[in-house]
Amino acid sequence: MLDDYSLRLLAEMGVEVYLPRASSAATIVDAAPPSGAPTANTAGVVFVCPRDAGGRLRSHVLLALRAAGLRVLDGEDVDLVGDRSVAAVVVLGEACARALGAGLPAPRHAELEWVISGEPAALARGAAPKRALWGEIKRLARTLVARR
Predict the structure, then answer these.
(1) Sequence ranges of the domains in the chain
(2) Residue 120 in contact with residue 57, Cβ under 8 Å?
(3) What CATH code would you report for 44-147?
């Protein structure tokens, strides 16, 4: 365990020290969720991925969405027109996004925040498309926090 002097020295050098949380049950129950953690009243983000996209890519994008503090809803189970808890849609592939957007009324289409990436195959191969998608996910998280 580090003493106060060691922590101050590390802070002066620019090193952030993360201490583990206390494991007592009272601390866990009384602890508030982190600022970026999704809560029950957080607007949902629908994630739509073509069926032929690899499971690994899908799981990585889901992990990125959750890491950004977004409450993710499965795209197949959500009614975008009727469910007002949905505030954003993340779609992999432009063709899938066109098909999804064609079925929405214009006012509802305008209410939603959209993140549309390239085709899943291109996303899986290149680092630049992944960085662009991650940047859009961060922007989406900031936008949804600002709306609250």
Answers:
(1) 44-147
(2) yes
(3) 3.40.470.10
pTM value? Answer: 0.69
Distance between CA 116 and CA 34 in Å, rounded? 28
Query: 82-102 pLDDT, tens per residue?
Result: 888 889 999 998 988 898 888
CA gap 114, 101 in Å, rounded: 10
Beta strands in the chain (DSSP E): 44-48, 71-74, 86-92, 113-117
Q: How, if at all, do strands 86-92 and 71-74 pair? A: unpaired
Residues 6+ apart with CB under 8 A from 66: 38, 72
At residue 50, the pLDDT reads 80
- Residues 6 or more apart from 115 whose CB is under 8 A from it? 88, 89, 90, 91, 133, 136, 137, 140
Residue 93: which of 132, 56, 120, 72 has the closest Cα? 120
Q: How far apart are CA 40 and CA 119, in angstroms?
A: 32
